[in-house]
Structure prediction request, 247 residues.
Amino acid sequence: MRQLIACALLVSVACSAPPAAGGRGHGDAPTAPEPQPHAHAQRPTADHRFDDAEAWSKVFDDPKRDAWQRPAALVAALGIEPDEVVVDLGTGTGYFLESLSRAVPQGRVIAVDVEPNLLAFVERRVARQKLTNVVWRLAEKDDPKLVERLDLVLVVDTYHHIGERSSYFKRLAKQLSPRGRVAIVDFRMGHFPVGPDDSHKLAPEVVEREMKLGGYALCKSWDGLPYQYVLIFAARCPATGAPKGAS
Ligand SMILES: C[S@@+](CC[C@H](N)C(=O)[O-])C[C@H]1O[C@@H](n2cnc3c(N)ncnc32)[C@H](O)[C@@H]1O
Prediction:
């Protein structure tokens, strides 16, 4: 528990603290590598639970996070249209839901996670914040259980928790609309006041390689966050879109 509190003080949303007593493992320390279809391109998957919603809310929803996570600026950078169907994949306690909900007044937000306790927390949050266009869905580790046409899949500090990522996102591509894209946000390499140790991170080049194996192209990256990279992928980049790397 002491380490969990230390982790919360660091505002580390992907920290390497072990679980509170009785848990199976909350931290981001990598486990033994899972067999990967393209082992040369992929790194170990951080496979552990985030089942203590109240404890993780202290980390994910720490008000100090807003200063570096810049949720409104990030959502604005994603170029969301008001009628889009947006997925928050690995929603956690739903930190991004209010910003996403506001961005799609005529659309819908689907909050997806593998942890029932987190989704119960999300359900309470959605009611409290009156987010009438947000629904939530319990996923399986290798299946997000998404059947609808999706315009945007946002993946914040979650990509490295997913196993066999190239094939996972290749399957997910079948659900994307013609304007569909996948935005991956994760910690940059380096020593920062927040985030895990470098050994637990994936370099953006690795993410790009894996997503290419899944059939995606990198359409845009956004440099507006101090500690995280933002990579926006699609099966085909819009011809009129900003050139790769533009902010
Ligand atoms: C570090 S948290 C990030 C939470 C949230 N995106 C945020 O930024 O506050 C990672 C989340 O991904 C979820 N997760 C892990 N593996 C997953 C998978 N295969 N599919 C969907 N969610 C997953 C975890 O339960 C956890 O809630």
Q: What stands out?
A: The radius of gyration is 17 Å. The first strand starts at residue 85 and ends at 89. The first helix runs from residue 2 to 9. The pocket of S-adenosylmethionine is lined by residues 13-14, 50, 60, 89-92, 95, 112-115, 118, 139, 141, 156-158, 161-162 (CB under 6 Å).
